[in-house]
Amino acid sequence: MLRKSDLSLVKVFLAIYENGSLSRAAEELNITQPSVSYSLSRLRELLNDPLFTRTRDGMIPTFAADQFYQVFHESICKIEQAIADARQFEPKTSTRTFRIALSDLGEFYLLPKLLRDIHIKAPNCKVEVVTTEIEKVEDWLSQERIDLAVGNLSFLKGRTLHKKLFDEHYQCILSTKHTRIRGEPTLDEFLNENHIFISKASGHFYINDYLGERGKQINIALHIPHFSALPGIIPDSDLIACLPSRVAKEFISPGNLVSFPLPFPTPEFEVSLYWTESTDDPSALRWLCEVAYHALKDI
């Protein structure tokens, strides 16, 4: 039987099985090839099986080795996960970099609030913001290329872990000097005005889809990739744009823009945190999610 002291032998077995070569196993484990050969000899004696046969195509596992691999691989994964879970994240001393996916609206409205709390609690940690790409964000999370995604990403529900921050709805903004609209626009006025359309990559394309399903469409005069350009474009134009109400409130605060409800019913949408279970540093990820939730919920 394998004893506690033989756990390293199991890792050698897994490396040989997965690499099909003693030399590649040694390279992966950062030990010498003679050490791998010695460990394999001990394993053969302990398990009473040759385990591998040397061929021109590499080390071919025996039937027994195939059975051992399933058990050993699962066991090692559980052990490594338990060790990772036991490692406690220390925010006061950590220098870890957190990678967070945000839209440009998230960078404008959410990031300052989140950074404030992260830097208070973990002054030496770093944050790298990645611009959310709708078609890639699920893969980024599953491959642990990012730690957290924040935004209107409801399509990720059921595919990742998530936690709701708040409900949101859309409004339209326009210049206080708009030459035609002076109050809440009617549906006809809204449809006939010149609109700014922000790229679907932003995740905010509900309004176009909603109107298209009803045989209506807005008159798009300008396509831009980011919402953040709106305060510089709209004040001296007759263009209008639709965006989430919280950001609309921030954009109109200087006094040169005004916001109105949309002239048709629109459901609310959720802004949430999205993440997957970390295999590398679960306690750090749990800490980040907790900080983000308390910093951003119901703002």
Automatic annotation (TrEMBL):
<dbReference type="Pfam" id="PF03466">
    <property type="entry name" value="LysR_substrate"/>
</dbReference>
<keyword id="KW-0238">DNA-binding</keyword>
<dbReference type="InterPro" id="IPR050389">
    <property type="entry name" value="LysR-type_TF"/>
</dbReference>
<feature type="domain" description="HTH lysR-type">
    <location>
        <begin position="1"/>
        <end position="62"/>
    </location>
</feature>
<dbReference type="GO" id="GO:0003677">
    <property type="term" value="F:DNA binding"/>
</dbReference>
<protein>
    <submittedName>
        <fullName>DNA-binding transcriptional regulator, LysR family</fullName>
    </submittedName>
</protein>
<dbReference type="Pfam" id="PF00126">
    <property type="entry name" value="HTH_1"/>
</dbReference>
<dbReference type="InterPro" id="IPR005119">
    <property type="entry name" value="LysR_subst-bd"/>
</dbReference>
<keyword id="KW-0805">Transcription regulation</keyword>
<dbReference type="InterPro" id="IPR000847">
    <property type="entry name" value="LysR_HTH_N"/>
</dbReference>
<comment type="similarity">
    <text>Belongs to the LysR transcriptional regulatory family.</text>
</comment>
<keyword id="KW-0804">Transcription</keyword>
<dbReference type="GO" id="GO:0003700">
    <property type="term" value="F:DNA-binding transcription factor activity"/>
</dbReference>
<dbReference type="InterPro" id="IPR036388">
    <property type="entry name" value="WH-like_DNA-bd_sf"/>
</dbReference>
<dbReference type="InterPro" id="IPR036390">
    <property type="entry name" value="WH_DNA-bd_sf"/>
</dbReference>
